[in-house]
Amino acid sequence: FDDAVYSYSGEKFETMMKYCDQMVVATPYLKDYVSRFKVPCEVIYSPVDTDVIKPYASTNANAVIGWIGSPWTAKYLHDLAPVFRQLAGEFRFKLLVVGADLKLEGVETECHPWSEKQEKKALLETDIGIMPVRDDEWSRMKGGYKLFLYMAAGLPIVATPSGINREIVRDGVNGFAADSIDKWLDALRTLCNDEALRKRMGTEGRKEAESKYSYAVCTPLLCSCITR
After folding, report:
1. 38-76 residue pLDDT tens
2. DSSP code of 204?
3. 117 near 172, Cβ under 8 Å?
4. 150 in helix, strand or coil?
5. Span between the terminal Cα atoms of the chain, in Å
């Protein structure tokens, strides 16, 4: 599992652990939590099919900031409303949202319900991938799947340095870690104004997606767990 599912499942989670021979979790933070159950546990990232999700040369006249998520994680986008409004007052950009409906006055926003097809299409149209979260227990336990998607697509990433995001984001290399409104504003402003930097960071992210977060890397690890 790759979320803090224990926080809302109570006895069901403990029952699952009771009958479990092997656990697979998506972050070291989850492994630390479940260590109390004394069950063998492996950390395997939630991988991306890098043969399907690939970099694509953007032809956008203005930068597109992309986010892929769900209605219940859209609250993290609302946290960045001041950032988007400030940026919209400085230059043109578009916020592309997949999986939620978001309306921000003064910000050009395009929203779509999630589907696998729409996810792939959005990645082709995006220049910068973002993952805002809050530094709470739920966020710290989350896997980094949306960041892996962005990286596989050759996009620079900007994310809140909470939980596994601290490991995924190499600040200044494959993107930026942003833990305040000012840092989010600086990171997005910098990337929106520097196409060459976006390309360099995206190239670094793609390398890491292939070497750490791909099916080719993670599938053998899962097969090893199953066949022990």
Report:
1. 999 999 999 999 999 999 988 899 999 999 999 989 999
2. H
3. no
4. helix
5. 19
